[in-house]
Amino acid sequence: MSRRSDILDEMGLSPRWTLRGRLAQQQAKAPAEAAVPPVPPAPAVPAEPGATAIMQMDWATLAQTVSGCTACTLAATRKCTVFGVGDRKASWLFVGEGPGAEEDERGEPFVGQAGRLLDNMLAALQMRRGEDVYVANIVKCRPPGNRVPAAAEVAACEPYLHRQIQLLQPKVIVALGKTAAVTLLGKEQSIASMRGQVFRYRDTPLMVTYHPAYLLRTLPDKIKAWEDLCFIRERVAEWRAGATSDVQPPG
Length: 251
Ligand code: URA
Ligand code: SF4
Fold this sequence. Notes:
Strand content: 5-15%
Shape: globular
Bound molecules: uracil, iron/sulfur cluster
Mean pLDDT: 87
CATH superfamily: Uracil-DNA glycosylase-like domain
CATH topology: Uracil-DNA Glycosylase, subunit E
Oligomer: single chain
Strand order of the largest sheet: 1-3-2-4-6-5
CATH class: Alpha Beta
C-alpha cells in the first residue's frame, strides 16, 4: 500500500469510522461500572519481588510475577493483569499508558477502539503486532475509570516494563502519548514538543507520537501521527543499515 489516500483510509481518516456512536456506547457503560463497589484490597501477602529480583527474571517468571502482582493499589480493582503481547525479539516496542476496560477483560493490551486504530496504523506501515512488534503499557493493571495512573502506581510497575525492555532489546521504543513519554523520559513535556526527535530510555532509542485514543478524539492529528511513524520507520531502517544518525533531530 503506498497511495496516500489508501494509507489515510487504513488509518481511519475516511468517514467509515463511527466514532461518536462507539464513544457514546462506551461512555454509556461507564456509570454502571462506576456503581460496582470497589473490591477491598487483598489481605497481606508475601512481599513483592524487588526491582533487583525482577531484573534477573526470564520471560516466564516475569509474566507469572506480573499476573499475581499486588504491588500497587490497582491490583484491587483489576480483572486481569495486562502483561504485554507480541514478538519477544521485536525491533519495535510500542508503549501505551495502561489497560482500558476491554484490555482488563481480555488481558491483552490495545484490543479496544484505540487498539483497532493502532492496528490500522501498523497495517499502514505494513506491520502487525506480533511480527517484529511488541505492545505493552506503563502500568499492567487498569486504572479505575481509565484515569491517568498515579505516580506511585507508575513507580511500582516500572521495573516490569524495564525488564521487558531488557529482554526484548528493541531497536526503538515508541511512546504512545504523554503518560508513556513523560514516564520513560522522566521529564514533563508535551507530545507536540517531543515529536520528531530521538531520545533514549536507558540505552534504547525512544521516539514519541500521539496516543491512539487521543487521535480518535482529535482526527486532524492523525496525519501527524502518520508522519511520526514514517519518520521512526526511516530511523529504524537507518539503524538496521548501520548508520549512526540516531541522536540527531530530523533536518
Ligand atoms: N490505552 C492504553 O494506553 N493501553 C491499552 O492497552 C489500551 C488503551
Ligand atoms: Fe503490580 Fe503494576 Fe498491577 Fe500495580 S499496576 S498491581 S505494580 S502489575
